Amino acid sequence: MSKTEQQKLPEISLDGKDHEILKLIESNSKLTVREIASQIHLSPTPTHDRIKRLEKSGVIKQYSAVLDKRLVGKRMIVLCMVTLREHNKKSGAIFVNAIQGFKEVIECYNISGDFDFMLKIVAEDMESYHTFFVDKLTEVPGIGQTKSVFVMDVIKETHNLM
Asked: Which residues are CB-contacts of 162 (< 8 A; sequence separation ≥ 6)?
């Protein structure tokens, strides 16, 4: 999250019922309001109102399905660290804009340390990663250095915060 996005975050206080709702939705976003209400011991109307408030405030950003990468042909996960040649707003913006357009990049973090960015990339196999790396990533202006680390096995992977 960029500094600008962090500054825009609204003030919202979450109580125990909000946390219960979020935990349930996070584990199964297909639950109905009635099912959630039943599990948190509230009636459907206030439960619905709480969910709408959580959506409107941005606490709930979206609803989505978590796909099994392997079953959709994305058997390779690569963590790629990137350093830019120049450290200024223009170079950073060019890199970030390019990354936004690469479907292979499923996560991108601005990091501290020896590298500027860490990308999580999914690919069908080594050949498709190589093609992405050579034809797309290294063509982004301003990249100074990269380091790719190939994931051998996923030990833990979750999207749950609650």
From this structure: 19, 22, 23, 26
Token pair of 4, please? 């600008």
CA distances from 111 to 70, 92, 105 (A): 28, 13, 16
Cα–Cα distance, 64 to 43 (Å, whole number): 25
Q: What are the backbone angles phi and psi of residue 158, rounded to the nearest 5°?
A: -145, 160
Residue 2, pLDDT score: 55
82 within 8 A of 117, measured Cβ to Cβ: yes
CB-based contacts of 65: which residues, under 8 Å, 6+ apart?
A: none
Q: What is the pTM of this model?
A: 0.84
Which of these, 111, 83, 113, 117, lies nearest to 99 by C-alpha position?
A: 117
CB 82 within 8 A of CB 145: yes
